Please model this.
Amino acid sequence: MTEQAIIEERTDDLLGRGFARRDLARIAAIFGAGVVAASVGRPAWASGGVPDPAPNAKIRIGANECWAGPLAPGQAAAARIIASGNRYAPHDERGDFIKAVMAVEGVPYDHVAPWPGSSDPLSRAVVSFCSPTRGLVTADPTFELAGRTAEWLKVPVKRVPLTADYVHDVKGMVAADPNAGLYYICTPNNPTGTITPLADIEWLLDNKPTDAVLLIDEAYTHFAGVPTASYLAAARKDVVVMRTFSKIFGMAGMRMGYIMTDPANIARMMRYDGGMQSGALPLPSLACATASLTAAPLIAARREQMQAARGIALDHLKARGLDVKPTNANMFMIDWKTKPAKDMQAAFRTQSVEIGRSWPIWPTVSRVTVGSAAEMKAFCMALDKVWV
Ligand SMILES: Cc1ncc(COP(=O)(O)O)c(C=O)c1O
Model:
């Protein structure tokens, strides 16, 4: 269904239920970012097929999920708290979570807001900091949700190609719209897995309009194990750093994430729902996230497993003479050059392997998620059948 068709269907539904056309703007304002995200932000796992073909595939390496479930201490904490689920907050689980973030990231209590995943705050950042006169600047290719939300809102969007090293072209981003309301940097970037140096991020901060906000999406940072941008969220008022538990923590279906930013930005992003999205989170998800975030040795071990599994795939792809772009996260991009990525995705489906999508700027390039070592071996075997 196209975005226009979705809008028309929802509009017809509201009008059919007796709402007047003049009510629509008010309704949209109440639901705010939630409506935006639900309408235009296809779920992170959807690679374009309807219904989603991935659940039927034996090897699911299309959605940048983790190959394994939550870390053991997280699973235990989630299981423990279920018996107390009759209370909204049996103790102060939200506070405990925020304290864990403070300890790990070095940011003050009032700079942290937990959220059920990072898709919603990503859309909300666009709703909160952009307008028809203050646009969004994003990269190409990058995670698409911010751009889609902006288009929905009729906010001007500039998509700036990555540099030759596949990192964000921060100078190009400021030049593309020197008066934007929001600049979006995804590091490691989805889909390339590449890291934008903190020095480049600081350059962008020094050169953007002082009242514009920089959103730094670090969904994959634990897979890279490099210094993060949390210190910028603590030190400045114009930075939002965003995290999710959907990736290395293996909690995509449990919906947990958080933002780190100045309290005024948190208040602004929450103004659509009185803070419900961040204030009332499922207890098992909160407890699991708190216990996982502080399990540093287990996080490092998972990163090492990913690197070893990625090595298996990359060695094989190179031996087969394929062009694989550099990566520092749990995904890699293969340029098939002579075949559209969509056709290769379909070919892999015949082998019960669900690989990732492609981006319009690179139609012959597929994104593949790093799974377990066994999944990577199965991917290599499937490759040898479909790429002869
Ligand atoms: C870069 C990036 N940001 C945000 C998200 C949103 O994920 P979630 O809503 O599960 O936290 C994703 C999901 O794939 C992502 O790749």
Observations:
- The mean pLDDT is 91.
